[in-house]
Each structure stands twice: as structure tokens, then as C-alpha cells.
Amino acid sequence: MRSLFIACLLATACATPPGSARVNVTEVHDIEGPRVLCVVAHPDDETVFAGTLFKTATHLGGVCDILLITNGEGGFKYSTLAERIYGLELTEEAIGRAHLPRIRREEFLEGCVYLGVRDVLFLNQQDHRYSQDPEEVLAHDAGVWNLVEVELAIDRALREGGYDFVLGHLPTPATHGHHQAATLLALRAVNRMDLNARPAVLGATTNALLKFTELPGYPEASALEGPALVFDRTQPFGHRDKLDYRVVVNWVIAAHKSQGTMQLAMSRGERERFFVFDTQTPNAHANAAVWFDELTQPQFPKKVYGPSAGTNASSN
To answer: What does each C-alpha distance from 45 to 21, 40, 49, 77, 239 come to in angstroms?
Structure first.
């Protein structure tokens, strides 16, 4: 039944014409937990906070939406193994750029099903190339992204979503310029909001980074004082605590089959670290700390099995 649901979802989503489009992935009723919006550049960027999204949606009763800026066409360089799966020479730039927007959309939506994401807003801007310079897309004369369209889309999402938190990639100088740009655009949008309506904005990384102060040259990307907030993917659960949240993160990674280097991230990055930005949002760090404390609480009840399950003192 699950595979049929995914197939129907993807068929509907991929029939959507190019341009901005919203796709409902998971029906959510009676929201009890945090309302979260992720603003990311590429399909597969959601993996950096996959554990946080999954547990927020499935345990806390929250709602998680994703605004995806680009179409992912720039990922053709690492599609070698996916060529056999999709029957296309995706590592040829022209072929990859022509077909990867559809393919990566399918892969992304499959992963969103596993995470319990509610809605995805596709902006379908060009994923032009790898660079560590955010100005390649943010400069007024860059001409890569339609910045007016992107800014209006983020503004509208924030206005209509009533979000408590906005997540993006932590913008460090060594990260992809698109990642930096997506987070900067989210921060600028939040700073345009009325002060009392602003959600807290958090930047995420799976690197063992213990301190983040700011992105040089971009004062809007300054962090509040206080420790990083951490989601531990190794929180154990299940029979004899043999499982942890790396399992579901791996499911999401596996969905992105066109991105070979992404697959190498399987079971790596045991902790998702978040730094809270200074957007003058009232009680931003304190509210985020409460959320992350709730994410440490046990999700699954312990079950006891008898001899029919093959459990005894020496069995695993």
C-alpha cells in the first residue's frame, strides 16, 4: 500500500508543469507540535535535518514544510551509477540538465514521504553550477534566480504558514554558495516580518562544529549567544535498543539515487547541530531549546517478546 501511495504521489507531482508549484505529501490534521519551514536550495538538502523533521512530524505532532528553490539540474556530475537505473546518460551535461529536474523531483518527494513532510513548494529556479560564492545568485545582476519571485514566495509562505521555526543550512564560507544564499534569503524574509510574528531561524550542519558566530560580510547571518542545539540521530529505540534515527535518514539518502556522492553519507553525521540566528525574534533561543528538549523524549514504547520470537538471555 505504501509503495502504491508513493507511486501515485510521484505521478501527480511529476505531471505538474514547470514553474512554482505546491505539492501536498502528507495529510496533517490536529497540529499539536511545532510548525517548521525549511528553506533549501537543492533536492537532497533536507537530509541535513532529516532526523529533526521526522521526529517533529511523527512524534511531536508538528508540521514540516519545505520550500525548495532550485530544480537540481546541476547534479549531473555524480550521476554515473544512476544512468543504468534511468536509462539516460545523465553525466553528459546537456542530457543531465534536461532530465534531472524531473528525476530529482521524484527522488525528493519519495524522501519527503518517509519524513512525514506535509507540503513542498517547488520554485524551480536554475541550479546553475557549484560555487562557494552566494553572490553568484544573490547579486542584483546575477540573472540566475528570479530573486523577486523567490523572495515573494518565501514571504508568502511565512505569512500563510504561521511557522514557529525556519530551518536552513548553516551558511559558512566553505559551504555551497546556493546553501548560503537560501539561508540568507530566508533570514532577510524573516527580518521583513513584524517583530512579534517572526519565527526563530536556525542554521543546521552535521559537521562537528561547536561554535558559529556569523557569515563574514552578511550581518543578517549572525548567531545568538548560546550553545548549539543538537538532535542526536543515535537515540536508541526498538527491540533491545538496536535501532536509531540513522535508519530513516538512510532511507531518505537512498531515495536520491541520481546523486552518487550523497549515498556515501549513509550512517555518517551522527548529530544534527543547529545555531539560532539573531533575528530579534522574542525568546528565539529559549523556544528552540524547548523544542529540542522535546526531541530527546522517547518516541516508541518498549515491547516485550516471548519465546515464540526467539528471545532469550543470549539472543539478539
So the answer is: 18, 6, 8, 17, 31
Residue 292: inside a domain = yes
| Domain, as residue range, for 109 | 2-309
Residue pair 23/124 in contact (Cβ under 8 Å)? The answer is: no
pLDDT digits (tens, 9 = 90+) for 244-267: 999 999 999 999 999 999 999 999
Residue 200 host element (H or E):
strand 200-205
Q: What is the CATH number of the domain that holds 194?
A: 3.40.50.10320
Q: How many domains does the chain have?
A: 1
pTM higher than the cut 0.85: yes
Residue type, 273: R
Residue bearing cell 540566475? 144
Pairing of strands 200-205, 229-232: unpaired
> Residue 160: is its pLDDT beyond 90?
yes
Residue with grid cell 540538465, as numbered in its chain: 97
